[in-house]
Amino acid sequence: TLMSGEIDCEDFRAKLSLHKDKPAIINTLEESGFTGRFYIHCDGALFGLMMPFAPKVSFKKPIGSVSVSGHKFVGCPMPCGVQITRLEHINALSRNVEYLASRDATIMGSRNGHAPLFLWYTLNRKGYRGFQKEVQKCLRNAHYLRGRLTSAGIGAMLNELSSTVVFERPQDEEFTRKWQLACQGNIAHVVVMPNITIDKLDDFVNELIEKRAVWYKDGKHKP
């Protein structure tokens, strides 16, 4: 992948060309399509339920299937996911279950009965406009956080249509634990969710600036 996290399309094309005689299953993001023998499943995870409400994004691409997490952006109290696929794939998967006197199209033959109720309730309560407003708030606040960080001389990156702000890893593990930051190597990230307010972001950045003044003396060191 590229530094931004995107697929290196040139490298991807070259690898596909080397294996034209073999089928491929590609686990990727929402902006993809498939042709010929290539089946593409989009793992939407968190952003699968955010992207439809963002500008310039459409799910009209000819993908094979897409899955999204129900316990992340929607907030279902137990881990769960939803997979949507094309009818021809469901027909190939479904089978008759004699003791149920019906056809079963689930992947595992069973599922948690409570999770769909929580999802149904939340989707109906918030509605399309409700989710759209939350997504717009997340994107707006993510841009605000990136702006605060860069204005303070802290290296930060935010991909378009994303609410994940990547920045320099703090040097204090206590600070990292306090703010529950996810870190890898020399970078950390903040996923801006609907419950995160501007005041909370200001508190975070202000404390980070204070800590950096101690860690780096001038507070503007970039690793």
Automatic annotation (TrEMBL):
Keywords: Decarboxylase, Lyase, Pyridoxal phosphate
Cofactor annotation: pyridoxal 5'-phosphate
UniProt cross-references to InterPro entries, sorted A to Z: Group_II_Decarboxylase (IPR051151), PyrdxlP-dep_de-COase (IPR002129), PyrdxlP-dep_Trfase (IPR015424), PyrdxlP-dep_Trfase_major (IPR015421), PyrdxlP-dep_Trfase_small (IPR015422), Pyridoxal-P_BS (IPR021115)
GO molecular function, one term: carboxy-lyase activity
Keyword Lyase on entry: yes
Keyword Transmembrane helix listed: no
GO biological process, one term: carboxylic acid metabolic process
Gene3D superfamilies for this protein: Aspartate Aminotransferase, domain 1 (3.90.1150.10), Type I PLP-dependent aspartate aminotransferase-like (Major domain) (3.40.640.10)
PROSITE patterns, per database record: DDC_GAD_HDC_YDC (PS00392)
Coiled-coil residues: none
N6-(pyridoxal phosphate)lysine: residues carrying this PTM: 72
Family note: Belongs to the group II decarboxylase family.
Protein name: Putative serine decarboxylase
Organism: Helianthus agrestis
Source lineage: Eukaryota, Viridiplantae, Streptophyta, Embryophyta, Tracheophyta
